[in-house]
Design the sequence.
């Protein structure tokens, strides 16, 4: 049995009429017109071709084959009487002389119609992912992913970066999420860890003398799923540069990403270099988020001094933020539902009032605003038909609710979101330290290996009490696109003296650093170059390019929200023999 084909199912054209050909693919559909006439659609990776059976024997053969069986068709190409301009192969059809079953589908009923698989529930789609991927709409996302990864590799290579793979089995280290642990059979009681990121290895490569490194790196984190985060594993464009500053990193990504987004994205517009740079504190004040969606024209204003003493109880003693939405003509039902959604997402209750077409304060907390109407209208620059949404609470809570108002109202109210573009920005100058919610003491805010802005001198000033440690910023940055954090990066703290001092600020000494990060600390004592890097998430990038809301739509074989692979039944139990070899005993939790 030969499976060689002369053409794919998306290749034949009118110019091929009269040719003897052989195609192979899946039997997608069969439409019978009578006992001696039937139209079949054969689909492969490249497209579909119509096959016309015109004899009783050939019709009977096709009827005996279940849909989604793989078949080969040998026959002659001819011009179609009824052409389909929507299909690349819509001007031709194949009259078969021989049809052979290559792989029989043994099921009369499919879990879902292949071309409508996205309408099925997610659990069914994940269980039968191999069928889901036959849907051209689903398959195209995976093709897009392949194209984007290839384009990233080419662009990084053209910028002088070497692709270097780093270990998958490594040591556990405190990097912010739970590790996946792998028992070491030959070392009872010890474990490898799957890397949460190649962070230490790429910094060690810089210390080893490599100048520019990248890889499409697999990362493993035992954390819960979100719409923009896959549980278990994900991929990132990991990169690091020696003798580099923040500006050097920005220049590379501002050159690499816009052409890829413009070429492969659902929208053909992408920010050009240089991307807007927004300090962290400004982002929180102006947008209520460190992941602002710059496609939205709404911003946050502080009105604590204006409304904090207006007599409305929830404002008393709290920070008050306002979001003004111009040209607002939505119904009360819309307002109630939208603000309820904001409360669910942010955890903070929003409030509102509006200026009607006659310039009167109405709705929501209008009676508290009315006595200071002139001041409010002047301070906020209000015009008739303006809507004002408000949040209140401690600074962080008020900012979070205001940020959710910006995002929700910007997307829901017409005229406030230029959706069809990719709007990039850098968030810079992150705080180096914060007060821990549980400890009440000074802790690292983000990456402890970021270089503090000002280096050793600023740390010594904080140690001497000359400045507040909370005022120290880090040479750390996030890349944000359309309200999605694509990556975090930093200029690294490559100096052991500065590193030790940074850790001493949070009550950890040199021995703690040596114990937690022995290889990197020791390597730095042999003369490390200044270096900086970043790691944009490939999965999130492709999700944005495809215009999908869920990251699982662009991963070939994703896990569900509970980090289960229902197709492969993972995680699964293992045999007692395997456990004994690994010196592991299972202790089940008590009821």
Sequence:
């Amino acid at each position: 049995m030969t499976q060689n084909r002369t053409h794919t199912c998306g290749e034949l054209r009118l110019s091929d009429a009269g040719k003897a050909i052989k195609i192979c693919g899946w039997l997608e559909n069969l439409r019978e017109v009578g006992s001696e006439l039937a139209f079949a659609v054969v689909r492969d990776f490249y497209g579909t071709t119509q096959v016309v059976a015109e004899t009783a024997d050939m019709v009977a053969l096709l009827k005996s084959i279940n849909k989604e069986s793989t078949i080969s068709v040998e026959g002659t190409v001819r011009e179609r009487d009824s052409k389909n301009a929507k299909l690349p192969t819509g001007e031709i059809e194949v009259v078969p002389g021989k049809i052979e079953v290559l792989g029989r589908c043994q099921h009369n009923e499919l879990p879902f119609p292949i071309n409508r698989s996205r309408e099925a529930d997610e659990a069914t789609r994940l269980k039968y992912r191999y069928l889901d991927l036959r849907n051209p709409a689903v398959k195209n996302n995976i093709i897009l992913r392949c194209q984007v990864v290839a384009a990233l590799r080419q662009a990084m290579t053209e910028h002088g970066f070497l692709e270097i793979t780093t270990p998958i089995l490594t040591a556990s280290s405190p990097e912010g999420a739970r590790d996946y642990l792998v028992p070491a059979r030959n070392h009872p009681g010890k474990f490898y860890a799957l890397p949460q990121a190649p962070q230490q290895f790429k910094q060690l490569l810089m210390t080893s003398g490599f100048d520019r490194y990248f890889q499409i790196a697999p990362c493993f984190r035992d954390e819960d799923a979100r719409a923009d985060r896959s549980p278990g594993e994900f991929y990132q464009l990991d990169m690091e540069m020696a003798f580099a500053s923040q500006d050097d990193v920005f220049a590379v990504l501002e050159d690499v990403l816009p052409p890829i987004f413009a070429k492969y994205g659902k929208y053909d517009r992408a920010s050009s270099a240089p991307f807007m740079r927004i300090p962290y504190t400004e982002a929180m004040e102006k947008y209520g988020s460190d992941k602002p969606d710059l496609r939205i024209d709404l911003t946050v204003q502080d009105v604590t001094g204006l409304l904090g003493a207006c007599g409305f109880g929830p404002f008393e003693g709290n920070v008050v933020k306002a979001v003004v939405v111009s040209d607002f003509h939505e119904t009360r039902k819309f307002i109630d539902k939208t603000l309820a959604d904001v409360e669910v997402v942010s955890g903070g209750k929003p409030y509102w009032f509006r200026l009607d077409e006659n310039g009167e304060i109405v709705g929501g907390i209008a009676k508290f605003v009315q006595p200071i109407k002139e001041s409010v209208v002047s301070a906020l620059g209000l015009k008739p038909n303006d809507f004002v949404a408000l949040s209140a609470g401690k600074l962080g809570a008020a900012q979070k609710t205001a940020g959710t108002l910006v995002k929700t109202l910007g997307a829901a109210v017409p005229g406030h979101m230029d959706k069809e573009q990719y709007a990039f920005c850098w968030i810079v100058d992150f705080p180096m330290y914060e007060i821990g919610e549980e400890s009440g003491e000074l802790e690292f805010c983000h990456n402890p290996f970021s270089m503090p802005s000002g280096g050793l001198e600023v740390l010594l000033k904080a140690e001497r009490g000359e400045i507040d440690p909370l005022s120290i910023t880090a040479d750390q940055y996030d890349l944000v696109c359309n309200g999605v954090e694509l990556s975090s990066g930093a200029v690294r703290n490559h100096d052991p003296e500065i590193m030790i001092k940074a850790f001493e600020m949070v009550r950890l000494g040199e021995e703690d650093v040596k114990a937690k990060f022995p290889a990197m600390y020791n390597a730095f004592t042999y003369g490390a170059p200044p270096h900086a890097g970043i790691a944009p998430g490939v999965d999130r990038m492709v999700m944005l390019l495809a215009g999908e809301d869920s990251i699982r739509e662009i991963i070939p074989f994703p896990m569900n929200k509970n980090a289960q692979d229902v197709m492969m039944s993972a995680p699964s139990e293992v045999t007692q023999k395997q456990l004994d070899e690994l010196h592991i005993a299972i202790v089940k939790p008590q009821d």
The mean pLDDT is 94. The first strand starts at residue 20 and ends at 34. The CA atoms of residues 238 and 535 lie 4 Å apart. The radius of gyration is 30 Å.
